[in-house]
Design a protein that fits this description.
The complex is a heterodimer of chains A (about 400) and B (about 180). By secondary structure, chain A is of the alpha+beta class. Chain A has 7 helices and 14 strands. Chain B starts with a strand and ends in a 6-residue tail after the last helix. The chains are: A alpha+beta (about 400), B mainly alpha (about 180).
Chain lengths: ~400, ~180
Amino acid sequence: MDTILGRYKNLIVLAAILFAQIIALAMQVRRPTAEGETRLIRVWATAAVTPFEEAIVHTQKWAHDKWNGYIYLRHVDQENQQLRAEIDRMKLEQARLNEDATMARRIQTLLAFKEQYVESTVAAQVIGTSGSEQSRVLYIDKGSSDGIKADMAVITPTGIVGKIVQVFPGSSQVLPINDQLSGVGAALKALRLQGILKGASNGTTTLQYIMSDEPVKTGEEVITSGGDRIFPKGLPIGTVASVEPGKDLFLNIRVIPSARLDRLEEVLVVTKIQEKLPDTTDLGPIRASDILSERLPGVPVTQTVDAAGNAAGSATSTANPAQPNVPAGSAPAKPGATTSPNPANPAVGTVKPGAAAVSNATKPASAQPTKPASKPQPATPPRTGENPR
Amino acid sequence: MSSRSMPFRGSFTSREQVSVYEFSWLATILIPLVAIFIQAFLPTKIRWLPIIDLPMMVVIFFAVARRNPISGCVTGAIIGLMQDVLGGPAHPIGMYGITDTIIGYMASSLGVKIDIENPGSRFLIIYGFFVIHQGLYYGVGHGLLRQSLQWSWSHVAISALANAVVGVLVFNLLDRFKQR
């Protein structure tokens, strides 16, 4: 007996160690969410490794900031001038977008659409990885002591990154969207088709469950659909890189993430998402006539030239007082600022879309500032069930 | 460090005796820890680094230097498990543990028979063990856990080449900890 044990001692030890690990593996697979020794050992390991990673990252950032902020200031003045010019340009762009946003918020309110707002975020630094090709998890330097919880979304300004899967006191584990276990509710921005973005073991991301007869093109933007209840709706995910026929009736759409998942340094953890109706308090009262006029086609501006040669839009230039293309010289069109023909009924913010449309369809002409000189618009009631977008 | 000679009749090396090395307890603890730390930290800066498996190289190095199968598989198990705990939900603890245990056992068994002191044999050994390592990992993940892992011969071949090149350099560095 001793001879046999001595002869096969090495193999027996090998078999014993392997057997113990396979049993441990089986226990984890059987109870993947159990918080037992596995959880504890992960906490210990993370607590042992992350302080060193944090120290290096923060020291490096400190040195980098000092160098760029106080020493290496070459071309800073030139860059400042460029940035100022960029700010001026963006202010003009913002003014235009504000007009569009105002109109969109009104329509959303009418249709009782709820929006998801990212109310608060926590900035975090990426301090480590799993170090494995098969598992692409990341570690960030914020944990439960900073208010981080599991299933919180992790984003960057350029696109989403992933979600929190494990939280430790001073750090957290992030499952990126290109991990094989990841799944994100996604939609094609232009086609408004919804699917699921899944990662793979080789680090690619594919949009699944889009029917093969859909005209999906490369370069199309992919955004979050909000269906996973983790990521707010409308955040950028990436762009379509290739479209191929997949299994069954679905396309195999490969997506390149907008966020540089392989070069992440700083990320934002979305700690609070609020779901609410769009805020219309700063838009002024919404009149029924405005709602109706937004749904009716506008009349093109007809330029008239007076004796002095001044060009002015005709008083009949618009059948839509809410449109910005008001006659020259008149006040900017703000629906709530104009006099309502029916002051007793100024706002319909709480009125259901259908009711508002029906009640206003009966007197569209009275809502116009002036009657058009040409043939007036027919007072056809709008299709209330139609999505204005 | 101390070194002793071990007579082994089945050795394929030209020398009749192969050297068995020992390491200080500090090196035994710190070398694996540093390897795992580098493996986890540097990919945030160098994106291709995950194809390099430093902990596996350390397992092979210790195994072939000590030339003791029991020591090799225990070292492999410990280093593999340490590597496992940093993995995500797709990576249960034990996947690297099992593969590194087997690699440690095989490397130490092979180290008894083959002289791995020169760069050429080190290159071939690391190349071969990396391919075996990837195959074992795939087998554990796909066979035991039913994970949807993808196998690409070209990727494995290129990764093995990179690991072999880096491994030769790492082995030369770690040779300094052999107390000859």
